[in-house]
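Lay summary. Proteins are chains of building blocks that fold into shapes, and those shapes determine what they do. In this project we predict the shape from the chain. Here is one chain we studied, written as its sequence of building blocks.
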Amino acid sequence: MSHVKAEIATQAECWRQAAKLAESPGLPARGERVAVVGCGTSWFMAKSYAVLREQLEHGETDAFQASDFPYARRYDRLVAITRSGTTTETLDVMRTVGEHTPVTVFTADAAQPAAEIADQAVVLDFADEKSVVQTRFATSVLATLRAHLGHDIEAAAADAEVAIRLPLPVHPALVDQITFIGRGWTVGLAEEAALKCRETAGFWTESYPAMDYRHGPIAIAGPRRVVWAFGDVPAGLAEEVEATGAAFVHSRHHGGYGSIGRWVGKRAPLDPMADLILAQRVALSLATTQGLDPDNPRNLSRSVVLP
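And here is the predicted shape, written in a compact code that computers can read:
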């Protein structure tokens, strides 16, 4: 068994442990103006959290790719996400902003620079990974933050256990392209799902806000292509996608997947993070059917450390 396969399968328990960290010191207080930074997968988790925090009226929250942080702005707290604790761009933001703003970091390794730089470190060492690609660490960070906002993580974890067992909605031999879409906080999950397929399998994926999908991206929809939606779906979009010959995948959508894959049967909607587990499993399947090593994708390393 590959490391990434085992790590995907352990997310339910990781989320339960992560939820216990919801009262950790340094998590954003209600009313604080917060910036959240990360790179790659961590950035997508930051984007999801930022939307959720504002929707629940906990305070203004912005998410930034660490290399593009707007240093002229002022915040009450910086939250950084870095699994390795060594990502150069994230450390740079932490050091600079930390001169005048409290910094909280989510990391898997308390011995690395990020934990030393931060005022408060939330350490999820139980969710660390041996694989290069992130799966359970990123979703466990989001589980902690969601629990801090009052979400029921036990329900999400139960859905995660279901997602591990479900038949895959996409057969790797029958699909040439997948576009992931989301709304609100699930846009970040859609972006992460697309990244997992690109990282793990070198597969052609795209990601967009669901309401923007009609404004151009739908032009590539067609046979042997999939549109996979996280969260709420705009009225009529599923029908428009299927009219192109593409398959529409959604946990609330009842209908066949045609020639793209196997229908998973009628079921209750999954928590969107559990739906992300299905996408992670599809990425793994796309990699292994090509004979690729999912633990060590080409051109990637566990952490980007710049000279």
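What the prediction tells us: Strands lie at 34-38, 61-65, 77-81, 103-107, 120-123, 177-182, 205-209, 225-230, 247-249.
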